[in-house]
């Protein structure tokens, strides 16, 4: 097969049913989020963390509106990059925000990988040295990379099988956890445990990470049967299903562990909550689900992220170098994505990885809603008030989160700001160069004609 054919992206129209699309969305959403975020959210906002999940669902529901409207008007497999391009054209906002989305997806991979490591080590009484978690995470990313090289069919098969097992397993965990607990009550009155409003907003921002997988549904827009009706439906059903599952799990964890225990075991709080309820078998069961969930999530994520970067490359919005590698652009973007993921997994802990992910994601999300309001409102027939509310809610969550991190972990805010400045400057230079090259090309061909 010649490389020219290989560079194109092939999609099958009408190959995804509504239930299939919902499975895809929930499969991505119920990834590491629920396994690792529960503890981090509890640390930020105390016993109110199950409510923070609900608040996140409300924000995401408003956010979903813009994505549904754009994907109804332009069903494309390009997803976010395509939406930004429709709104902002070949300009810096498109490239900058698309790269933020790309990085937030790479970050999500590292988040999954670290969570995999944290849970797996619970089978061996934890990770005292602190070395095994990153090592396991790095090995998982490399294994997922190998499977991704084997091609799409393998990925879809493995991912859907894991998806069904994982969702079933988490439901069992939530129901059994609540059934066994002495009382399903979360005591909201205990003083000192409920965080301030800013902390609650911060925890809500983290909760958004657990829902942001709905954007993968929009990426498969052109492959869904009757996309104009089903993409929106699939997103709404997926978010609703996740609300039920997350609430169940939140209450199961809160009924079996004290707040101090949830915070202490924040990287593997579900396994810890299974121990008092179900003993060692419960721990093994939970760890097995966590390992499947994170492994399945990484498989799907590496696939989607490399696809998105390949598309930005084809749109000439990002610089691309083959570094002497053979094969298609998507194979190269796969390599870049994996290398970035490996670096993050090796050097950043879970809460910092999550923090970077949520900052980048919310900024990109605001840019999408602004694009709808400013440029696409007529084309996609959107109401003005929904994206406006979405922007306000995003800003609230982002503000709360940044405020908490400024007080507790200044370093991570620094990394986020520096990364964004580097992306913006590099992209500005790249786009300027590209425009100059194009103009020079026009002048040359003009000269030849005369």
TrEMBL record:
Q: Which GO terms describe its molecular function?
A: transmembrane transporter activity
> Which InterPro entries does the entry mention?
AA/rel_permease1, APC_superfamily
Q: Does the keyword Transmembrane helix apply?
A: yes
Q: Which Pfam families match?
A: AA_permease_2
Which membrane topology term applies here? Multi-pass membrane protein
**Protein keywords:** Cell membrane, Membrane, Transmembrane, Transmembrane helix
Record carries keyword Transmembrane helix: yes
Q: What's the superkingdom here?
A: Bacteria
Task: Write out the annotated subcellular location.
Answer: Cell membrane
Q: Name one GO cellular component term.
A: plasma membrane
Predominantly, its location class is membrane
- Membrane-crossing residues? 21-41, 47-68, 92-112, 132-151, 158-180, 200-219, 231-254, 283-310, 331-348, 354-372, 384-404, 410-431
User: What is the protein name stated in its UniProt record?
Assistant: Amino acid transporter, putative
